[in-house]
Amino acid sequence: MISKAPAPGADTSGDPYLPAHGNGGYRVRHYDLTLDYKVAPNRLSASAAITAEATQALSRVSFDFADFRINRVLVDGRPAKYLKRGAKLHVKPAKAIAAGTEFAVEVHYVGNPRPVGSRWGDVGWDELTDGALVASQPVGAPSWFPCNDHPSDKATYRVSVTTASPYLVAVTGNLVERTVRGSTTRWVFDRPEPTATYLMSVQIGRYDEVELTGRGDPVPQRAAVPPRLRRAFDRDFGRQGRMMDVLRRWFGPYPFGEYVIVVTDDDLDDPIEAQGMAIFGANHVDGRRTHERLVVHELAHQWFGNSLTVADWRHIWLNEGFATYAEWLWSEESGGPSAAALARDWHARIKAKPADVRIADPGVARMFDERVYKRGGLTLHALRAELGDPAFFALLRGWAVENRHGLVTTEKFVAAAEAQAGRSLTAFFTRWLESAALPPLPGA
């Protein structure tokens, strides 16, 4: 059933960087996604049951959603009018929804999933040579399910995927059911922790299952790896248990029930971050631990980026700066160059570049600029010198534990650092976060 186009306003999050993604008037509590995927034709038949709470009176609701054929839409079990326009699905329930009311929207759809275009290239559901992957950061989630695509609207998930039995399926969640039915297998995953849409992922391929930890380890870790890469993978990820132990010592308890690594049989430009999961390309596995810094970077994101999620994209240095500094800490811990040596090296490299990025608010065009990552790491190294090691590591651990599964901002981190220091750090953070000019590195 088709309705007239809604008035503007309900289909924006108000995000200063990506206002077209996310929607106003409600908060999602839970997504229940049922996917039936045929690999060879890249055909997805699916339904999404979305439970949400209205934050204001609603005569209509909007979702971010890509180009699928929609078969029907229900609101609270009753057929609803809808309009698909551009990257938005507008739904008009038979009866207006009162503020504070919980409501349920059900969308049934079918089509050939493909990435959505963005200023950072194509992101979202993508075909592999033999399988599929999802890489949604920052705007790719609508490529496979209707959603409120903003990092601040974290929800729980249940995801069911049915596909041909030769394929292994990994979803960002705990595997709760696997049922073989003839030539197909149904995989069901539960994600009980609040999760941003861009951190949900589906991985499908002809993979071996590999256990990375023994029975009784506090954090189960497993992997999905192409058979041809098993030997090199065992070498490259052989320190995974030790890496988890060290990061837990620095940052506090691991925030999820397990950690899953997927290595695709195709090359990838960069590893992919997801909640409780990291995805690497075949080119990141060479048997020489060449890319181990990326391994620890993605693991650190489970604390900084996944459990602690930015309230909006202005604060992305809180994800990438922390993961970058984890690389430097791990290098020192594992016998490589010290964090101080890496900081000196990167300070010199960044100093040679134009001084035109303020990492507290880099602008949408520079969200993923290398300088946001490295200057973020340099800011933390300088803060370590400012506070001293005991207070600095206490701050990192307290920051991760106290904001577990929550939303964070730069202002909130500055307040936490000042509370740890017992004094104002305004001048310090003004130099390092608000100024485009690179400050001198302490001790250099």
TrEMBL record:
SUPFAM superfamilies: Leukotriene A4 hydrolase N-terminal domain, Metalloproteases ('zincins'), catalytic domain
Catalysed transformations (reactions): Release of an N-terminal amino acid, Xaa-|-Yaa- from a peptide, amide or arylamide. Xaa is preferably Ala, but may be most amino acids including Pro (slow action). When a terminal hydrophobic residue is followed by a prolyl residue, the two may be released as an intact Xaa-Pro dipeptide
Domain Aminopeptidase N-like N-terminal: 30-199
UniProt enzyme class: hydrolase
Gene3D superfamilies linked to this entry: Neutral Protease Domain 2, tricorn interacting facor f3 domain
GO molecular function: aminopeptidase activity
Domain of life: Bacteria
Family: Belongs to the peptidase M1 family.
The protein's name: Aminopeptidase N
